[in-house]
Design goal:
There is one protein chain. The protein is α/β, with parallel strands linked by helices and about 140 residues long. Helix 2 packs parallel to helix 4. Strands 5-2-1-9 form a four-stranded parallel sheet, with helices on one face. The chain has a three-stranded antiparallel sheet with strand order 6-7-8, with no helix packed on it. The relative contact order is 0.22. About 25% of the residues lie in helices and about 30% in strands. It has five helices and nine strands, in the order αβαββαβαβββββα.
């Protein structure tokens, strides 16, 4: 007798892997949750369970709490019925289409999206190194 997971394994035709939990991938998860693509397994690999949203300035100003200003990627991944790995990516095996994580996990992919966020120009902007707060999914 086949288990449900065995059946699901055979019906998957594409593995879509998202690296990084920044805004673009949060939007993909939300859209996938609202309208899943048949036969596509969605996986998010991110270093952190939460990522800052557009309300981060409100937290800095003291108007909003940390939870009000961050997206819980675990909740969003559950909504999208996506696999979630809280881990760091350390290598990409392009020959075998695998994402290699810090804990040794290798995740197969057919389609890969890398959302690394942005890096503020702290060197060229006066005072930025001392006073800027980076809103990068992998650093918060």
């Amino acid at each position: 007798m086949k288990r449900i997971n065995d059946y699901c394994q055979h019906t998957i035709v594409k593995d879509l892997v998202l690296i990084g939990g920044s805004h673009s991938h949060a939007i993909v998860l939300r859209m996938f949750g609202m309208k899943p693509l048949p036969k596509v397994r969605l996986t998010l690999i991110t270093a952190n369970q939460k990522t800052a949203d557009g309300m981060l300035p409100g937290q800095v100003a003291g108007f909003n709490s940390h939870d009000e200003c961050h997206i819980d990627l675990r909740t969003l991944a559950n909504f999208a019925q996506a696999q979630l790995y809280i881990n760091k990516v350390v290598a990409l095996d392009w020959e075998n289409n695998k994402v290699v994580c810090a804990n040794g996990l290798a995740v197969d992919f057919d389609v890969l999206s890398i959302d690394i966020g942005s890096t503020p120009a702290t060197v060229s902007v006066s005072g930025a190194a001392e006073y800027a707060i980076a809103a990068i999914g992998t650093l918060i």
